[in-house]
UniProtKB/TrEMBL annotation:
The keyword DNA repair does not apply. InterPro entries: RseC, SigmaE_reg_RseC_MucC. Keywords: Membrane, Transmembrane, Transmembrane helix. This is Regulator. It comes from the Bacteria. It comes from Pseudoalteromonas luteoviolacea. The chain crosses the membrane at residues 77-98, 104-120.
């Protein structure tokens, strides 16, 4: 199981919208590696994740969710492997069946890869994630230190 703690950002029509905390890509190199650079360039957009409300929640409340990791492997196979396999099928069929030149093989591979992408996208929309709410954390009050304590 993959677990993640998210924060309720919005409540709308019996749906809670959750956002995750931004984590740095790594802290080992103080921002000099490629992961940190790409994180700074493209990591500012936060995506909200909707879940149906089963218990009352408040904005700012933390929720721990779990995802079955066997589903993640299945999704990865569809999204990453299918377009690649389709590109090879397109390239080899253009070469062996139609005896096309290199440009024709490249165009056929690109067309088949795009077709594989469309099939993977359609299949990915039909696959459902089995996300479970593990724990709902209560909203805590901020504690301030009083001088002299």
């Amino acid at each position: 199981m993959i677990e993640q703690t998210l924060t309720v950002s919005e409540l709308r029509n019996n749906t809670a919208w959750l956002v995750s905390q931004q984590k740095p890509a790594c802290e080992g190199c103080n921002g000099k590696c490629g992961s940190q650079v790409f994180s700074k360039l493209f990591g500012t957009h936060k995506k909200a994740f909707p879940i149906p409300l089963t218990e009352p929640l408040q904005v700012g409340q933390k929720v721990k969710l779990a995802l079955d990791d066997s589903q993640v492997v299945q999704h990865a196979l569809w999204v990453y492997l299918l377009p690649l396999v389709m590109a090879f099928i397109g390239m080899f069929s253009a070469l062996l069946l139609f005896s096309l030149s290199e440009g024709g093989q490249i165009a056929s591979a690109a067309a088949f890869a795009f077709l594989g992408f469309l099939i993977a996208k359609k299949k990915g929309q039909s696959l459902k994630h089995d996300v479970k709410v593990i724990k709902i954390y209560p909203i805590s009050l901020p504690v301030t230190q009083i001088d002299g304590d």
